[in-house]
Amino acid sequence: MAVSGHPLEPRLVAATVVAASFGALAAAYIAEFGFGLQPCVLCLYQRVPYAVAALLGAVALLPGVGGRGRLALLTLAGLAFLTDTGIAAYHVGVEQHWWAGTAACSGAGQPQPATVAELQAMLTRPPVVACDRPAWELFGVSMAGYNAVLSLGLGVATLAAVRLLWGKIA
Question: What is the CATH number of the domain that holds 18?
Fold first, then answer.
């Protein structure tokens, strides 16, 4: 699909969405498995929109997808990034103690062991990572804070590119 008189190419936008999503996910997995930073449940939730955006971007790259279909998929990818911005901003609020996290953030609501066997099974599971204690910070900003900025930028840039391209499909 060509975009008449416009240097921005929808397939390039789709490839950028895929690359940015994989980059963000790679950074999260490197932090976890390379540096031993254990993610809390909100950290894990923040990975989902990136996976969704990567999938939508990959489908938009398929040759059989038409121009308007490609832009619709990219719009959904932009909205996935903005969804991630909301999750990350919520996580920052939990870290700053502006509000409480979910029950899964603290392990609250976990069933208490009734037998020695249940206690042993519970002790073999990894501990619940608290959402209100950042595993890493740089200049006083946590990974959730940086992710909020990154996902907001990706969402706005993706939607702005779609808006530029929407009326220019040849």
Answer: 1.20.1550
| pTM listed for this prediction | 0.82
- Asked if residue 3 belongs to a domain, the reply is no
**Count of beta carbons in the 10 Å neighbourhood of residue 22:** 16
What is the spatial distance between Cα 126 and Cα 47, in angstroms, rounded to a whole number? 20
Range of the domain at 123: 10-166
pLDDT digits (tens, 9 = 90+) for 81-140: 999 999 999 999 998 888 887 877 765 555 665 676 665 665 566 666 787 788 877 898
Longest dimension (CA), the chain: 72
Nearest of 58, 25, 60, 53 to residue 39 by alpha carbon = 25
| Count of domains for the chain | 1
